[in-house]
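Dear colleagues,

For the upcoming journal club I promised to circulate an example of a predicted protein-ligand complex. I picked one with glutamine because it came up in last month's discussion. The inputs are reproduced below in full, followed by the predicted structure.
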Amino acid sequence: MAVANRVKHTKFIFVTGGVVSSLGKGLCGASMGALLEARGLNIGMQKLDPYLNVDPGTMNPTQHGEVFVTDDGAETDLDLGHYERFVSHRMSRHSNYTSGQIYESVIRKERRGEYLGQTVQVIPHVTNEIRDCILAASEGLDLLIVEIGGTVGDIESLPFLEAIRQLRLQLDARDTVCVHLTLLPFIKTAGEIKTKPTQHSVMKMREIGIQPDILVCRTEQAISRATRDKLAMFTNVRSDSVMSLPDQDTIYKVPLVLHAEGLDDKLCELLNIWSREPRLEAWERIVHTLENPKRKISIGVVGKYVDLAESYKSLHEALIHGGLACDAAVDIVYVDAEQLLDDASAASHLAHLGGVLVPGGFGERGSEGKIAAIRFARAHKIPFLGICLGMQMAVCEYARTFADMPNAHSSEFDPNLEGAVIALMVEQEDVKEMGGTMRLGAFDCDLAPGSLAARIYEKVRISERHRHRYEFNNRYRERLERAGLRLSGLSPDGKLVEMIELATDVHPFFVGCQFHPEFKSRPTAPHPLFAAYIAACLQYQRSRT
Ligand code: GLN
């Protein structure tokens, strides 16, 4: 009998956080998912975000980090990216709910009269709505891991915690577990790890009515038996359920560290799940390759959100995965596009690097710097990958240099522009609302047989995720093709340009894509475009020495 059949209904792991934010709850939840999946269980993941935005799509990436896009076109929290990189379950719009979405739905129901004249309140109407979203996402799974964003004590997370408290009461005692993630600060002057903030954070949880079953303590170093015992006593958590998760040099070690702490065993014990020992060879191989790379390569990522690496989270990871495929360590150098003013400054920032990548982005700031970077990479035959805005800027650069269009640009930066090689599609022209109105989610793309793209993907029909408003302007297709630009990927109806490239006898690797391949890369299955790009960068580096 398959292991999955031995769990008769869905069980739940709720992941909460205390003391401070940014402890890596998402990563911890994703790692738990990886461990339980490696035990043969069918895992799903969900993130509940207490903020009031309907989704993070309209937030500045430097505030909130990357917006992760699902196949079904939801703009979601970047933690969903971790989930997809660690477990095989694909996320959807039901994998991420914000307070904004929950309230929007409750208010819509109220306007439709669905509450039959009742006074609509946080308890039970909002909490029921949250509960229903959790239960709907759990269908068909052995286990759903639900992460509550924010930190216990925040006003806006209360309805989510209350919904969980009620759910725990309604479900069988052995069907839910609460894992609480906290920080154990090390106070240098006292030379001690301090447990008090964790004690208070668990006190807060208990005040709300949730006794955590497991504590995962983020620390700089491993903790002693005495610290575990002390924490256990003050937090009412069993000593063998106090786990430590010291800082790691790579996130892909986290499943292995948590396994060594006994986390997956403990979860299975508490949830009464019989399963095999986890198969962790794939994670062990990944860590081994990361720690013993045969080669090294530096890649310049030229963008404008370079102050917060979280803005390019999936891209960052996809480059690391590309390195894994080539047994290489990838050093990612973020270059502020605004520093690149001309060929000379582009040279000073990029000449020593093994590859240039221009990622997605919005707005005009930095666009000339991106174009300068692209021109430098093209002219010096440095492997180039342009993603979304990166592809759009590559089209502009090509039009300016080879198609006699010195003012070529995107109409995103000037709506009345003559020579807009990148422009709005008709269906976008009347869009007034900003949230959720871009071309979002998975779309098929047909690759030109024999193109570099088709050779990389080893097939001609691919599906990739999108998040953009502007497109290659078809008015200039012929002119640019005549000038030597290859349109190597088109939408199946032929109307949209999805990929561009230069012939390999002109440039060894010059590829642009209108979609975001980084969203589909996994350490266990590096994306072919990133694997091929890193391979080209290594080749280029070898050719220079
Ligand atoms: N700003 C561009 C557009 O909306 C590119 C978006 C992106 O890079 N994700 O089309």
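Two points we might discuss: The chain has a mean pLDDT of 93. Residues 360-362, 388-389, 412, 467-470 surround glutamine (CB under 6 Å).

See you all on Thursday,
B. R.
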